[in-house]
Specification:
13 helices, about 65% helix, mainly alpha
Length: about 220
């Protein structure tokens, strides 16, 4: 199958499975989304969604957030992990949003990535989901699946993002990155993977990945 045919097969299958793509992190505006995405690093969306209501009840905007101390923020968000770094980041970026951006979340990569604890992936999620600006946030699911599907060499997430942007039309990016995440969780997980249920990998997958799968099953 040609690469372009593979790409079309992925797009068609995911559109059929996930015509709707609700954003997994609960939020009400760009600021609360930014905080939720920052908190989701090395945690699960489900866990973050249990903690953000507690934090946002006290502070759901940068002006209220800086009234809390770093320790108070840390105490609330402890269950999501990495709380020392995340609490400093949340407090620090809230100050910068007030001082430099009139309390608003900037809608560009340069300013977003200049905020403490905000990397390229977090910025990509905010750009696509808060501002509907085309971006392709590559998480562990997308990185794993793009490799399994033979659409990237899997060297690093930067390369995976480049390949995804090169292969898939720009107008699909914002929805597609969520569709791939949903598919990865449901049909193509890292652990407990059942290739028979994973129709995309079974149909277009990298030969070496499929061979390795069956070798391990024996």
């Amino acid at each position: 199958m040609l690469k372009q045919e593979k790409v079309q097969f992925v797009l068609d299958t995911l559109e059929e499975l996930y015509p709707e793509t609700p954003i997994p992190l609960d939020h009400k505006d760009p600021y609360t989304l930014l905080i939720a995405v920052l908190m989701s690093a090395q945690s699960t969306d489900a866990r973050v969604n249990t903690i953000t209501p507690l934090l946002f009840a006290k502070a759901d905007n940068p002006y209220d957030m800086i009234k809390l101390s770093v320790d108070e923020i840390r105490e609330i968000i402890k269950p999501v992990g990495l709380s020392p770094m995340k609490s400093k980041g949340i407090h620090g970026l809230s100050h910068i949003l007030i001082d430099k951006h009139n309390g608003e979340v900037p809608a560009n990569f340069k300013d977003l990535e200049a905020l403490p604890a905000v990397g390229h992936k977090t910025a990509s999620v905010v750009m696509s989901q808060a501002f509907n600006i085309p971006a392709f946030a590559v998480d562990t699911h997308i990185h794993r699946l793009m490799y399994r599907w033979g659409l990237t060499n899997g060297k690093n997430v930067e390369q995976t993002e480049k390949d995804a942007k090169r292969l898939f039309p720009e107008h699909t990016w914002n929805k597609l990155h969520l569709q791939i995440i949903y598919y990865g969780r449901e049909y193509s997980p890292a652990r407990g993977w059942d290739l028979d249920k994973d129709v995309i990998t079974k149909t277009i997958g990298r030969k070496s990945v499929i061979e390795e799968y069956y070798k391990k099953k024996k």
